[in-house]
Amino acid sequence: MTKSVVNSLRGYSLPLSPSGTSATLTPPPWHFSGEVVMVDYHVDPAAAARFLPPELTPGTDAGQAAAVFAHWQWCSEPDTESADPGVGQFSEFLILLGCEYRGRRLARCPYAWVDQPVPLLRGWVQGMPKQFGEVHQTRPIRVGKAGPLFAAAGTYHGTAATGGRRIAHASVNASTLATEPPPLHTVPLVHSRVQPPWLAGEQPPVELVTSTVTGVEFSEVWSGDATLEMFDALDADFASLRPVTVERGHVFGYAETLVSGQALS
Amino acid sequence: MTKSVVNSLRGYSLPLSPSGTSATLTPPPWHFSGEVVMVDYHVDPAAAARFLPPELTPGTDAGQAAAVFAHWQWCSEPDTESADPGVGQFSEFLILLGCEYRGRRLARCPYAWVDQPVPLLRGWVQGMPKQFGEVHQTRPIRVGKAGPLFAAAGTYHGTAATGGRRIAHASVNASTLATEPPPLHTVPLVHSRVQPPWLAGEQPPVELVTSTVTGVEFSEVWSGDATLEMFDALDADFASLRPVTVERGHVFGYAETLVSGQALS
Amino acid sequence: MTKSVVNSLRGYSLPLSPSGTSATLTPPPWHFSGEVVMVDYHVDPAAAARFLPPELTPGTDAGQAAAVFAHWQWCSEPDTESADPGVGQFSEFLILLGCEYRGRRLARCPYAWVDQPVPLLRGWVQGMPKQFGEVHQTRPIRVGKAGPLFAAAGTYHGTAATGGRRIAHASVNASTLATEPPPLHTVPLVHSRVQPPWLAGEQPPVELVTSTVTGVEFSEVWSGDATLEMFDALDADFASLRPVTVERGHVFGYAETLVSGQALS
Amino acid sequence: MTKSVVNSLRGYSLPLSPSGTSATLTPPPWHFSGEVVMVDYHVDPAAAARFLPPELTPGTDAGQAAAVFAHWQWCSEPDTESADPGVGQFSEFLILLGCEYRGRRLARCPYAWVDQPVPLLRGWVQGMPKQFGEVHQTRPIRVGKAGPLFAAAGTYHGTAATGGRRIAHASVNASTLATEPPPLHTVPLVHSRVQPPWLAGEQPPVELVTSTVTGVEFSEVWSGDATLEMFDALDADFASLRPVTVERGHVFGYAETLVSGQALS
After folding, report:
1. How far separated are the first and last CA of chain A, in Å rounded?
2. What is the pTM of this model?
3. Which of A225, B120, B242, C227 is deepest in the core (most CB within 10 A)?
4. Which CATH code for domain D30-263?
5. Domain boundaries, chain B
6. A167 closest CA partner among A89, A237, A244, A99
7. Cα radius of gyration rounded to whole Å, chain B
């Protein structure tokens, strides 16, 4: 286990403690397995461009976006979470914007919300702009009538709220098996790692960082018509990313192992 | 839709309103589909007997008990919940005690905890003693490494807490396909419908009520060794139901439609 | 302590248990001390009338309403809550409508939200239509700059949300000491005690019930201009009670002991 | 307002956005006004020493510690929080250890818990090891019976839990007016600013940082006998800081403005 050695105090993150076991975050790698409800859409290309740092360009499909609802189960190596399922699970809603770096297709995440503190803080370590919210999505069922049957056509919904305000609602009428995964879920994310200045006069640099992932797996992907509403609950910057057109929706299982970050180059 | 007509005000439950649409609870039937992690165990037979009203007897397997963790998705008829998944889902932890009424095998629920207000209040309508808690359980996964694979052998955990205190932890090493469902999950529940007295001198009767359910379905059931800890976090009555022996655990999908109650007879 | 004796099982409410100590609710009386932020307003008189059962009339001030935000601390007799402050505190938002019964001035509560399960369930025992929500209000401060100073002029806010949707926002510019408490906070509440039907064919009566309170105390009351917004987040019945005119706001401490209910007569 | 300029993207913290208004954190200064329930105690001096980085020494009162429960109201400059009280309030439980740097008395915070995401993340910017928890404390009342009267003798309690486990309970029998504030609440905090390594091979430095505060104010301080329990709910490092002796408790209002950090020197 990689640990920061801080004098006598240890830990991958705060809180540091004598043996390092008090740290909120375990060091990577972290294994994730999740269920995803995703909607492809397009935003105003000019609005999307304003969310890109100058190193990145919109590329060939300006305004390309996706709204992603996911329920994640995760564990560290060694696994210290699985015996406590309330620790090793969270729900997430995020927005992706298609972009390019020197001709390489990437995705930029301008906003993300999670409902647990560990992924919130772990996101900030990576430069992923996670905030706290309430995120819910339809679960497939094995028996009965209260939802879409597992591994079959059916309708899925996702909702997100923060601070007692609804910010998004999506629905996907998953009707056919897709032949390949949705493109914006197959490209690397590129984040701006930001350290807010705290010491007088401090100006910490902002680094563009992509994530190294291994073990990517998709289950079968069910796709179909979709709807997506983004509500006027936050600021004008968020509102500028409202859907102009809504395309297909997708429902699938997804796994990856998040290993480390690397400076964009 | 069956509605109580209350003068001009309408609604199956509070809040009553002019059109009845403000009621917290929809009228039955309610369709449930859930994922269950369950542990069979035995408690001190004398302790179990103290939790039975005099109409009921322990019967042939005194001290028989089960701890049940479930994640439920549910909807009404017509379905007004599925488009808002945060409304139509909840987690539950409950304890069951085997008992008999005139030779008929039943289950008594002395304690239950849920994490949403609608099932809490709906439980009280039925006489089911639901309280508020935090309940978590392992989810099977489709791809990756962060949990047991769906429809296969694997280890599942469940935890329950209330008021910032852990009350139970269970684990099930689901290793083999069972040939039939766990007995305590196949018999009717019998509840004491209680209306707390509020008017001066009021002594509302307590009724023993069983539930009429239709559409019962089990998925395949995976069973195996199990552990169960009940923590000393509540009162002595709760503590008296600690496991004396722990038997098998089970993991399965389950569905039912809850239609109405009927007086025990 | 008044307890329902239920065969061998005891408790003022569910869950019944051998010694009665597991019950979610303690029996009355319950002592309450709270901080209140309140706005007087008027709704469409026809809308208000539709929320009254036929025994009640709008009376002399048709459409009179109030929005009440309160933070409560409470305890039972004997006090089993004070040592666990998370149990003995909750926040509440409720709406009051002025009404009359045979010339006697009363208040009707069409909607209420609380953020803890005990007051939710205790409300239903009384016929008070409490639901689950997130309620926040400004606290007065003793030192510093982060709020209005205690027992002085200052601006207070209240917000309420439910299910991830904002339902109300109020502000009170408390500028002058009032000579008497706000009228709608001085009259008895009259509730419809409703037991949702569960047994086949059951039609439980609905009773109009007022509350017997003792020990009513007001602190000094600061009053001034106010704003009140009700958002279009719920059903049309709720929306019909939007403010038509907004009058004065009030900030005060309030205490009462809730003793029992009595049938309206 | 000090803003990080990140190419075209702006914001004091993540999320960066075109106008900077989406950032979770506002830049300092932040004004705080709070109500504090605090217990002085001593831990095993050797255990306390293990929580200090080598630059710091235990100093003259080895093992000196305090448990601090606080409810905070806060706002930025300009004030963007007061109109939304759910944003500008949080509860906190923290532990302090007395220490020295070159003969100067300081306090070290090995553990802290808050119940809102903004103070959680803002703590990490400063090196303060905040985690997520549920924290509750008695509120003084103005009228009635449900608590201690404001600005008078009375009993106060505080509780803290995290992940569904109770970690601490304190009580203070505030009986007399103290002549000066509790010493550990009057000295600067010294934090280790930690940036968890994420890029391959990265070893970010750990900096010892104190906070620059202005506008410190104490209300009158009520003191008296106290109790403090720390529960065995977390790791052995946390358990090593259990009370060996418990001294006086204190209840008071406190305010400060947090301006910036400065490297310890």
Report:
1. 28
2. 0.96
3. B120
4. 2.40.400.10
5. 30-263
6. A237
7. 19
